[in-house]
Amino acid sequence: MVKEKFSNNIQRISKDWRAYLFVLPSLLLVLVFSYFPAYSAIYHSFYDWNGADIEKFIGLDNFRRAFTDGVLGRSFIVILILVLANFVKMVPSIAVSVVIHRLKRENWQYLYRVLFVIPMIIPGIVWLLIWKFFFDPTFGILNKVLEVTGVMSLLQWIDSLAGWGLFVEGVDPAWLSTPQLIVPALIIWGFPWVGVVGVLIYLAGLSSIGTEVYEAAEIDGIGWFRKFLNIELPLIMTQVRLNAALMIINTLKSYGLVLVLLGVSGGPAGAGMVPGLYMFRKAFVDQEAGYACAIGLLIFALILVLTWINNKYMRVDH
Amino acid sequence: MYSIGKKKRSFVSESVKHLFIWLILGFSLFPLYMVFNISFKDNTQFYNQPWLPTLPLNFENWAKGWDNIGQTIANSIFLSVSATAMALAFGISAAYFFARCKMPGWKIFWAIFMILMLMPGVANLIPLFSLLKNLNLLNTYFALIILGTSGGQVVTIYILRNFIEEIPKDLFESAQMDGAGHLQQILHIVIPFSGSIISTLAILRFIFEWNSFILPLVVLRDETRLPMAVKLYQIEGAYVQQWGPMMASYAIASIPLILLFLFTMQFFIKGLSSGAVKG
């Protein structure tokens, strides 16, 4: 049997070896540029390595160091807060897609889809730099908006009760240079947090609900929120879970955001330092590439565990 | 009587929905409005009236903005187009292999790609950098294009394989009878039949490359070779703040994608809405 299969295979290969030429380029690319670096990262995480000439085996020292590194520990807390905030930041996309779906006229639905795509085509870096400008204490728009809308006086009132000393009359809060305000700024940016890919995917999920379901619900006198809980949410739950899983992974991996807004040190007192940025900084600023690889592997392991939990316990079923 | 009341209520509820959407939309597009608004102001105009457009419009801001990043836009276009084209060319042929040629070993090859889907490439950056250094590819466009190409493989192959498998087999078989090789089958059957998903993938790939920031930041050294994203990041911190020219350069950096979007809107929205790109 085995022998027969083997000779069959040989026959097929000699007859049509050209087919392999079509997969070969892709295969070589991922082997060289994905698998080899991954292997190299694992290998070097056991080394004292500066990325160039110094390369000395030190066993688990990098990992031991990582577990006692206060900066790294705090960076994981920051990223945890950002992940939790990003769960809340998923709500506007869901709300927008549900409201668009409930509109009676299809041409309005189409128009709104188009309009919500516009933010996506602005380059990410431009988006971040605009927000960096918004956060500027004197020239930035954020403080002006807060003043015009009266939110600033509310914040000042809360501050006078809580005694933070962050929002005081006559002083413009400096969002990106006050350590206590950095994490809030990392959360606020991108307001109102409508992600167009999310909206379009939710809308795809919602599109299977017919108008008759809504009419029936209306006859039964079900309110708009019950409609959401009983009709719409169950239908998009698959997409919500998928987006949540992707969001967690992307947040853990991401550091471009902090790099652009706060620089490579994560802002004053490193208050906005995230694990990815710490890895980047260790490798490219402090020349500690081996330690950086170990940090990268820790982030990697965390994501892997979360992916596993997600696959095991959050099974997407209809 | 009853039906009139119902109509009225439905009109009110529709209006509330529209109002909600316009409010969110207003907030979402506000930054964009401010970019274009401030791009025509000099600093004095901006300090006095940041919200509304003021006269005279300072068109020289746009000229200065263009001086800042015009070159880098050309660089970005070159990089994004090359990486997108190569990622799709390789991706299509590999997807064809997986969909049509069940050659010995294909399962292993498939696993090699699919494992990458589950592996977040976060620790890779540093070894990748040293690999490029050893290959003498630092400060070259080739490095960025080849990395963009390889980075685009897994998702492209995964999505396209499904689409190619759904093309009727008879088409391929009759083409084979006529003596068409693999390449002809790709050119005459695969590409025409999965054109819309290929264009969606191309647009998404292009946007991804256009936004690429960290890799060019660490790979490129030459001032003149930088893509738009890295250049914007550098000039933002480098000069005494001239908000008008700065905002004009942000606006200029957005225009190519806006143009792309205007021409490909249908593909884009259809592709994303069909959920085909969920991965």
What does this structure look like?
Chain A: It holds the Pfam family BPD_transp_1. The complex is a heterodimer of chains A (318) and B (279). Chain A contains 16 helices and 2 strands. Chain A has 318 residues and is mostly helical. In chain A, strand 1 and strand 2 form a beta hairpin. Chain B is mainly alpha-helical and 279 residues long. The mean pLDDT of chain B is 88. Classes of the chains: A mainly alpha (318), B mainly alpha (279). At the A-B interface, helix 1, helix 2, helix 5, helix 6 and helix 7 of A face helix 1, helix 3, helix 4, helix 5 and helix 6 of B.
Structural features:
heterodimer; A: about 325 residues; mainly alpha; MetI-like fold; 2 domains; two-stranded antiparallel ribbon; about 0% strand; B: about 280 residues; 13 helices; membrane (chain B)
Using only C-alpha atoms, the radius of gyration of chain B works out to 24 Å
User: What is the CATH architecture annotation of chain B?
Assistant: Orthogonal Bundle
Classify the oligomer.
heterodimer
Strand content of chain B: under 5%
CATH architecture of the largest domain in chain A: Orthogonal Bundle
Number of strands of chain B: 0
Overall helicity of chain B = over 70%
Q: Uncertain regions of chain B: pLDDT < 50 for 5+ in a row?
A: none
> What is the general shape of chain A?
flat
Q: What is the distance, rounded to the nearest whole angstrom, between the alpha carbons of the first and last residues of chain B? A: 52 Å
